[in-house]
TrEMBL record:
<dbReference type="InterPro" id="IPR015424">
    <property type="entry name" value="PyrdxlP-dep_Trfase"/>
</dbReference>
<protein>
    <submittedName>
        <fullName>Cystathionine gamma-synthase</fullName>
        <ecNumber>2.5.1.48</ecNumber>
    </submittedName>
</protein>
<dbReference type="GO" id="GO:0009086">
    <property type="term" value="P:methionine biosynthetic process"/>
</dbReference>
<comment type="similarity">
    <text>Belongs to the trans-sulfuration enzymes family.</text>
</comment>
<dbReference type="InterPro" id="IPR000277">
    <property type="entry name" value="Cys/Met-Metab_PyrdxlP-dep_enz"/>
</dbReference>
<dbReference type="GO" id="GO:0019346">
    <property type="term" value="P:transsulfuration"/>
</dbReference>
<keyword id="KW-0663">Pyridoxal phosphate</keyword>
<keyword id="KW-0808">Transferase</keyword>
<dbReference type="GO" id="GO:0030170">
    <property type="term" value="F:pyridoxal phosphate binding"/>
</dbReference>
<dbReference type="InterPro" id="IPR015421">
    <property type="entry name" value="PyrdxlP-dep_Trfase_major"/>
</dbReference>
<dbReference type="GO" id="GO:0003962">
    <property type="term" value="F:cystathionine gamma-synthase activity"/>
</dbReference>
<dbReference type="Pfam" id="PF01053">
    <property type="entry name" value="Cys_Met_Meta_PP"/>
</dbReference>
<dbReference type="InterPro" id="IPR015422">
    <property type="entry name" value="PyrdxlP-dep_Trfase_small"/>
</dbReference>
<dbReference type="GO" id="GO:0019343">
    <property type="term" value="P:cysteine biosynthetic process via cystathionine"/>
</dbReference>
<dbReference type="InterPro" id="IPR054542">
    <property type="entry name" value="Cys_met_metab_PP"/>
</dbReference>
<feature type="modified residue" description="N6-(pyridoxal phosphate)lysine">
    <location>
        <position position="195"/>
    </location>
</feature>
<dbReference type="GO" id="GO:0004123">
    <property type="term" value="F:cystathionine gamma-lyase activity"/>
</dbReference>
Length: 380
């Protein structure tokens, strides 16, 4: 079955008791046992809950993976994936990653004894040169936040496979509709389901999908033990989001492509970073591993922070906010908002300049969004 059919029908057969067309929200902490022996059914909602199970099953299918797990947030999912490492192990990460993932490496993993080396991520060789004998994981985002760099996932998977290193891919920006890293050779896919999968800026969640039974068991045991699970209501909301993921992603992309082309023509804009534009340095690579380019655009304004402030002030439709992937268009300044906590040196190493602006293109009419940007850019 195809993507949109799976998103709507998997695990979602009408409830056998009531005929309810949607999966019920099993708002319960515990389940009656038939006897004192564990019989494989539901016992306690931290360990397993039918609403969460339905979501986990659909998440796995959409990533074309065998096993899915849902978490209370994207960073909870990242933490769970990183628990397969042990003190003394080493991570190679791309430099350009979500600020919260960077914070986990620096403030949680490092004190725990797991070091991370950051590759520029501009080439596959930049990752390879960071590998040490104790490297156990390569962690990448593709497209990355906020510079929209593309990692060659097939090439990285080959390098990891040769050396017994796990390849973990944060697939939040692309969504499984546009990119399925497991098919390209990745071992672990991580999501913030808060973003496109939920899709309506009204729920937090995270997910891990893998084909490897051993990895899955280890991460599932960690999920049950550490307990960063989503509530049944959250699971239900994310499942509702998944049902329209295809049509939303297509429209996010159509709007983003329209606006990226428009922004390329604007004198106030020095760079437009969108993998769907032929001017993107890795456009061909993106086209070879993605089925679409998503709804995120990063631009750089010639006028630096002063121009960014003016743009933000002049916009009427774009909302100044940190998240992404919802139906409404959002704007953020990486240097002042999502990456504000980094030192000037860390920002410089990441090429996070003051003139950068990250746009999450929503589902409003493309012409309305263009008009909004056009008039706000006039004064920049
Ligand atoms: C938001 C985000 C996360 C973290 O997810 P939360 O749901 O906020 O915990 C991780 N990776 C990327 C790429 C994100 O955009």
């Amino acid at each position: 079955m195809e993507f949109e059919t799976l998103a709507i029908h998997d695990g979602q057969a009408p409830d056998p008791v009531t005929g309810s067309v949607t999966v019920p929200i099993y708002q319960t902490s515990t389940f009656e046992r038939e006897g004192m022996e564990f019989n494989g059914g539901f016992v306690y909602s931290r360990i397993g809950n039918p609403t969460r199970k339905a979501l986990e099953s659909t998440l796995a299918l959409l990533e074309n993976g065998r096993h899915g797990l849902a978490f209370a947030s994207g960073v909870a999912a990242a933490m769970a994936a990183l628990q397969v490492l042990r003190p003394g192990d080493h991570i190679v990460s791309s430099m350009d990653i979500y600020g919260g993932s960077y914070r986990i490496f620096k403030e949680v993993m490092q004190p725990w004894g797991v070091e991370t080396t950051y590759a520029s991520g501009k080439t596959t060789a930049s990752y390879e040169s960071c590998i040490r004998p104790e490297t156990r994981m390569i962690w990448v985002e593709s497209p990355s936040n906020p510079l929209m760099r593309i990692a060659d996932l097939r090439a990285l998977a080959a390098i990891c496979g040769e050396r017994g290193i796990l390849l973990a891919v944060d697939n939040t920006f692309a969504s499984p509709y546009f990119q399925r890293p497991l098919d390209l050779g990745a071992d672990i896919v991580v999501h913030s389901t808060t973003k496109y999968l939920g899709g309506h800026s009204d729920v937090m969640g995270g997910a891990i999908i893998t084909n490897d039974g051993k990895l899955h068991t280890a991460i599932r045991n960690y999920q049950a033990t550490a307990g960063a699970i989503p509530a049944p209501w959250e699971c239900w909301l994310i499942m509702r989001g998944l049902k329209t993921l295809k049509i939303r992603m297509k429209e996010h992309e159509a709007n983003a492509l329209h606006l990226a082309r428009f922004l390329e023509q604007q004198p106030a804009v020095s760079r437009v970073l969108y993998p769907g534009l032929p001017s993107h340095p890795q456009h061909e690579l993106a086209a070879s591993q993605m089925e679409g380019f998503g709804g995120m655009i990063t631009i750089e304004l010639k006028g630096g922070m002063h121009a960014v402030e003016k743009l933000i002030k002049g916009l009427k439709l774009f909302i100044l906010a940190d998240s992404l992937g919802g139906v409404e268009s959002l704007i953020a300044s990486p240097s002042r908002m999502t990456l504000w906590a980094l030192s000037p040196e860390e920002k410089a190493a990441r090429e996070c300049t003051e003139g950068l602006v990250r746009l999450s293109i929503g589902l409003e009419n493309a012409r309305d969004l263009e008009d909004d940007l056009s008039s706000a850019l006039e004064g920049c």
